[in-house]
Design goal:
This is Condensation domain-containing protein. This protein is α+β, with helices and mostly antiparallel strands. Helices cover 35% and strands 22% of the residues. The strands form four sheets. It has a five-stranded mixed beta sheet, covered by helices on one side. A four-stranded mixed beta sheet has the order 8-14-13-11, with helices on one face. A three-stranded antiparallel beta sheet has the order 1-4-3, covered by helices on one side. β5, α3 and β6 form a beta-alpha-beta unit. α2 packs across α4 and α8 packs across α9.
C-alpha cells in the first residue's frame, strides 16, 4: 500500500476589513487630531473602585469580553488627504497594565501618579491605539480599574453602555450583542443628506439672530482640559430638589439648568445665557445600543433678568428645551462655521439623571468617577444623579480659573441651590453671587 501525502491547503486569506465613513462627530475630532497630532485634550477617562470579594481572573475575562464587543474601540483610521475612513477588522482586546500597590507606603498617591501617566500620554490614533487601561491593587479587597479612551471612539453614553456590559458580563449574565456600528454611522450619514438638516440648521441659527457678533474665545485662548472640583450634594438637598420641582411644574433637571443660567448671569453679568447642553442622540435612533461617538451640543438660550426667580427661569428652560430638542442633530461644529466663528456658548451644563454606578453583584461596592470628559472653553458643570444621590463636578479653563476658584464656584452653586429651593419666588441671581 502506497501512502501519499495530502495536498497542502493554502492558508486562509485574512478577512478584508469593512470600511465605513466617520460620523460627523468623529470627523470634527479627526480634524483636530490632524491639526494638532498627539494631543490629549479629547481623552476621556473613567475609574471604577471595586471593594469586596472580587475575583480578579473573572474581572480580566469580563474586561476582555466586553472590549471585544465594542468595534469603535478597535477601528483603524485611513486618511488619504481627500477623505478619512474607519476600517473594522479582527479585534484583539488590549490587556490591562497591572500594578500591585498594596505594599506601597502610599498606594493611593502612587495610583494617582499611574493614572495621570495613562491620561496624559497621547494615544496613537493612526496606529490604532484608541484606548488603554490598568488594574491597580490598592489593598486586599480594593481594586481600581482605570480606563482611558479618545472621544473619537466613545461619547458619554457609549461609556455608559460599556460599563453596563462590563458589569453584566462579570455577573455572568447572558447579554444581547450590541447593535452594529454600521447602523449608527449610516444613519448619521443619511441625516446629512435629509431635509431635516436644513430645518434644524435654520432653527439653531435663529437662536443667535438678534445677538451681536462675538468671536469664539477658543480662537485666541484655545480649548484646554480644566481644573476640576467635585462635591456630593447633601442627601437632604437632593430630596428638596426632587420634591421642589413638582410644584414648579418642571422636572428636576430643568431646575438645575435654570440654576446654571442664573449662575452664569451672576458670574458674568450677561443677560443672555447660552448653555451648551450635551445631547446623546440615542432615543429612537439606530445608535441606541451602539457604543460609539455620536453626541452633540445643543444651544439652550435662557434670557436672565436680575430679579428672575427659580420658578420663572425653570419654566423658561422647560419651554426652551422642548422647542429645541427636535433640532438637536444639527452639529454644533457646522453651526460654528455657519456663524463664522462666533461664540456659541457660555457654560456647558450636563445633567445625567440616571448615572448609577455599575452593579457587579452582591457584596461588591463600586465607586465610579469620571476623570476627564474633554476640553472646556470656560466652565463646564456636570450634575450626575442616581437614586437619592447627586454629584456636581465643575471644570474651569486653567487660563481663567485657579483650582481654588473652581472649588469655590462648586460650593457657590450648591449653596445657591439650597437657598433657591427654600424660596423659589425670590430673585435667583443674587443668591448665586460671590458674597451671598
Amino acid at each position: 500500500m502506497t501512502l501519499t501525502a495530502s495536498p497542502t491547503r493554502p492558508a486562509p486569506a485574512p478577512p478584508v476589513p469593512r470600511t465605513l465613513p466617520l460620523t460627523q462627530a468623529q470627523l470634527g475630532l479627526w480634524a483636530e487630531e490632524r491639526e494638532q497630532p498627539g494631543g490629549t485634550l479629547n481623552h476621556v477617562a473613567e475609574t471604577l473602585d471595586l471593594r469586596g470579594p472580587l475575583d480578579p481572573a473573572r474581572l480580566r475575562a469580563a474586561l476582555s469580553d466586553t472590549l471585544r464587543e465594542v468595534p469603535a474601540l478597535h477601528v483603524r483610521f485611513r486618511d488619504d488627504g481627500q477623505r478619512v475612513r474607519q476600517l473594522l477588522g479582527p479585534v484583539t482586546p488590549r490587556a490591562p497594565q497591572e500594578h500591585d500597590l498594596s505594599g506601597h507606603p502610599d498606594p493611593d498617591a502612587r495610583a494617582q501618579a499611574i493614572t495621570s501617566a495613562l491620561l496624559d500620554a497621547p494615544l496613537d490614533l493612526p496606529g490604532g491605539e484608541l484606548y488603554r487601561h490598568a488594574l491597580l491593587r490598592l489593598g486586599p479587597d480594593h481594586l481600581r480599574w482605570v480606563f482611558v479612551t479618545h472621544h473619537i471612539a466613545l461619547d458619554g453614553y457609549g461609556m455608559h453602555l460599556l460599563l453596563g456590559r462590563l458589569a453584566a458580563t462579570y455577573r455572568q449574565e447572558a447579554c444581547t450583542p450590541f447593535d452594529p456600528l454600521d447602523a449608527a454611522v449610516l444613519e448619521d450619514g443619511a441625516y446629512q443628506a435629509s431635509p431635516d438638516r436644513a430645518r434644524d440648521r435654520a432653527a439653531l441659527g435663529a437662536v443667535y439672530a438678534d445677538l451681536p457678533f462675538e468671536p469664539a474665545p477658543l480662537l485666541t485662548r484655545g480649548l484646554k482640559r480644566g481644573w476640576r472640583a467635585g462635591r456630593d450634594l447633601p442627601p437632604t438637598l437632593v430630596r428638596d430638589l426632587r420634591a421642589g420641582a413638582g410644584p414648579l411644574g418642571v422636572g428636576w433637571p430643568d431646575v438645575l439648568f435654570a440654576l446654571s443660567a442664573a449662575f452664569w448671569h451672576a458670574h458674568t453679568g450677561e443677560r443672555v445665557t447660552l448653555i451648551a447642553a450635551p445631547v446623546m442622540l440615542r432615543l429612537g435612533s439606530a445608535a441606541a445600543r451602539v457604543p460609539c461617538m455620536i453626541m452633540n451640543l445643543l444651544p439652550l438660550r435662557v434670557n436672565v433678568a436680575p430679579h428672575d426667580s427659580l420658578r420663572t427661569l425653570a419654566a423658561q428652560v422647560r419651554e426652551t428645551r422642548t422647542r429645541m430638542q427636535p433640532h438637536a442633530r444639527y452639529r454644533y461644529e457646522h453651526l460654528w462655521t455657519d456663524l463664522r466663528g462666533r461664540r456659541l456658548f457660555g457654560p456647558e451644563v450636563n445633567v445625567l439623571p440616571f448615572a448609577a454606578p455599575p452593579d457587579l453583584g452582591p457584596g461588591l461596592s463600586v465607586t465610579a468617577r469620571t476623570l476627564a470628559s474633554g476640553p472646556v472653553e470656560d466652565l463646564a458643570l456636570t450634575f450626575s444623579g442616581w437614586a437619592g444621590a447627586l454629584h456636581l463636578s465643575v471644570d474651569g479653563h486653567p487660563d481663567l480659573y485657579t483650582p481654588a476658584q473652581v472649588s469655590g464656584l462648586c460650593d457657590r452653586l450648591i449653596r445657591g441651590l439650597d437657598l433657591a429651593l427654600r424660596d423659589p419666588d425670590a430673585p435667583l441671581p443674587p443668591l448665586l453671587r460671590e458674597h451671598a
